[in-house]
Amino acid sequence: MSTTLDTAILDVGLNWPVNIGRAASLSGISPKMLRHYESLGLLGAVRRTESNYRQYSLADVHTLRFIRRARDMGFGLEAIAELVGLWHNRRRSSASVKRIAQKHQQELSGRIEALQAMQRSLAELVCLCPGDGRPDCPILDDLAHP
Prior knowledge:
Layout lengths: L2 H9 L8 H8 L3 H9 L7 E2 L5 E2 L2 H15 L4 H12 L5 H35 L9 H7 L2
Antiparallel strand pairs: 1-2
Helix pairs in contact: 2-4
């Protein structure tokens, strides 16, 4: 979704700032995770009322949506912190962003290869197991003897 359209959707009929429940709903992040991201410094200073209730701006909700999307893509919190900082820095170089994305892409490739190897091993064991009423089971034998 484009940023302009995104802003229009969020801005329609809402009175800003919003409370934590509304910010969580708009961003697709639970209030608990929202507090966690705030405690990690991913949002910066969130405005508070005199009663110490959090008040989230439209910019805060956009940042939370950015974080959620990055989490959906599997980025770790350290990489997300870097990406949020780069996103907010209009003088950034795209090379910095690309470096982070390439590193994550390589990590994902390694995890995919490991999962595929596990899948092949398990498929072999499933084929070897007769799956009948007898107690012999190559799956359990393999798990017992690494």
